[in-house]
Structures are given as C-alpha cells and as structure tokens.
C-alpha cells in the first residue's frame, strides 16, 4: 500500500483541504504564521543557515541529541519561530546529515519522491507524495500514493512520517516498489528517546497519532514501549543499509539502497 501517513487515511477530501488551509494560515493556532518559503540549497550551505541553527546555543542543559525531549530554546526557536524559513531542515538530524540529503535531492537528472512531505517539502525539484491537496509552498500535490507514480524513482526521502502508517511493513514494501534497483531511501524518523513521540503518548488531531515507536537494534530499550520496532532491522529486510544512526532532536537517520 503506497499511502502516506495514517494521519491522512481517515480524512475526507474536505477535511484534508481544511487541514491544509489551517497548516498554511496558522488558523488552528489562532494566529497567522508566515507562509513557508522554498528552502534553497545555497541557503542550506550558508553561514545564515548555520547561524539560525545555532541560535540559543550553548544551552545550559547541553547541546546533545535530546533537544526535542528537553524542548530546549533552540528546538523551540527552530521548530516554531523559524519553521517558515528553515522548513524540513529545521531538524538537527538533517543538518547533521546535510551532505547526504543534498546529494540525493540534487543528483542531476534524478527523480526524488518526498513521501509525506506536503507540510515541508525537502526540495523544489522533489515530487511530493501525500494525501493533502496542496503542500506547504501552496503547490498542488501531484500524487496521493506511491503506487500512482508513473515510473520508478531514483530516490525516496521521508521525514517524520513513517511512524503514522498503520502497517509499517507494507509502507516499506511500497517504497521498495517505487524505487528503481539501486535507488536510495533516506528516512528520518522520531526516536523512542523523546517520550512524547512514543506510540501511546503522541496524540495530534491535525497529523494523527504515532502508531510506531522507533529505535535501533544496537541498544537496550526501556520496557513497555508500545508498537516498538528496530527500524534498522525493518528497513534492512528490504534494503542494504549504509547509515543507521541516532541523530539530533531525538531522531534517527537511515540511508539505504534498494537491492
């Protein structure tokens, strides 16, 4: 099943349109927010980007991988005050793996699917695949499902979306089918280390609850995690993993190639 996130499965078209308009206007929060602007690679390589990502650092609680769990001033600044400017790259983990992400989305002649990326598209040239009718830049979303892509793609990027799928294995199967042999998957996911992102804890009316709690097979986990999966093991059943690592903002970065 190629669908996007569970947060979109139960929505009617009208509900999805209202959600999209609320996302763009900030109506759900009761205050207007600046519209998202396309994030250009030149900006991501600039001193200005690095300055914004370093705002409020160092933090008295330390700069480590748990800025989301600790809700540091830097985390709040990046994800709330500067979301319109930083877009998908407000995430510390994507900053840490910027070269890998840009190598994927800027590859000459490559077709990249941005799975579940309507809220904050990763690149102007990527094809957004989402159930929302328009993306955060105001563009119509061309495909609601990976299976509707007209041809295999060279890469799939997905950020904080796979945790919403009812059936993770079927979602990974859909990604595998959408990729050409040798195509690359970059998955950026929430880690169990942020308690409020764990399945059973995370509830969000706009985006839907988290169905899965993710970690890596390398470490011991707390007992009682709901919907827990070693995401490197799950992805490794279908792809050759090149990178699987915990990263900033209590997230996980995986880069893998379709066999």
Provide the descriptors you would attach to this structure in a database record.
8 strands; 11 helices; disordered N terminus; Rossmann fold; 6-stranded mixed sheet; about 260 residues; alpha/beta; single chain
Explained architecture:
The protein has 259 residues and is an alpha/beta fold. The model is unreliable at 1-33 (pLDDT under 50). It has one domain (6-258): Vaccinia Virus protein VP39 (Rossmann fold). 29% of the residues lie in helices and 19% in strands. It is globular. The longest helix is centred in the N-terminal third of the chain and has 13 residues, at 13-25. The two termini are 20 Å apart. The strands form two sheets. The protein has a six-stranded mixed beta sheet. A two-stranded parallel ribbon has the order 5-6.
CATH topology: Rossmann fold
Q: Per the principal axes of the C-alpha atoms, what is the gross shape?
A: globular
How many separate domains?
Answer: 1
Order of helices and strands: HHHHHHHHHEEEHEEEHEE
What's the count of strands?
Answer: 8
End-to-end Cα distance, whole Å, is 20 Å
Strand content: 15-25%
* Rg, alpha carbons: 17 Å
Any idea of the CATH class?
Alpha Beta
Taking strands numbered 1, 2, ... along the chain, how are they ordered across the largest sheet?
2-1-3-4-8-7
Assign the CATH architecture. 3-Layer(aba) Sandwich
The average pLDDT is 87
Describe the largest sheet: 6 strands, mixed
């Amino acid at each position: 099943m190629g669908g996007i996130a569970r947060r979109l499965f139960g929505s009617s078209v009208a509900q999805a349109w209202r959600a999209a308009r609320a996302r763009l206007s900030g109506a759900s929060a009761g205050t207007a927010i600046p519209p998202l602007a396309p994030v250009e690679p030149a900006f991501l390589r600039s001193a200005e980007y690095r300055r914004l990502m370093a705002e409020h650092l160092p933090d008295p609680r330390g700069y480590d991988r748990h800025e989301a769990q600790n809700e540091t001033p830097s985390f709040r600044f990046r994800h709330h005050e500067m979301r319109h400017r930083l877009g998908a790259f407000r995430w510390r983990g994507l900053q840490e793996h910027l070269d890998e992400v840009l190598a994927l989305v800027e590859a000459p002649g490559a077709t990249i699917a941005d799975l579940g990326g309507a809220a904050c598209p990763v690149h102007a040239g990527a094809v957004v695949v989402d159930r929302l009718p328009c993306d955060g830049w105001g563009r119509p979303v061309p495909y609601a499902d990976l299976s509707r892509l007209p041809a295999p793609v060279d890469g799939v990027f997905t950020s904080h979306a796979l945790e919403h799928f009812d059936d993770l294995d079927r979602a990974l199967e859909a990604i595998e089918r959408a990729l050409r042999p040798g195509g690359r998957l970059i998955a950026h996911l929430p880690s169990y280390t942020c308690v409020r992102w764990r399945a059973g804890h995370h509830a969000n009316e706009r985006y839907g609850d988290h169905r899965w709690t993710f970690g890596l097979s390398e470490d011991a986990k707390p007992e009682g995690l709901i919907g827990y999966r070693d995401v490197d093991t799950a992805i490794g059943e279908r792809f050759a993993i090149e990178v699987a690592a915990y990263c900033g903002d209590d997230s996980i970065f995986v880069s893998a190639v379709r066999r």
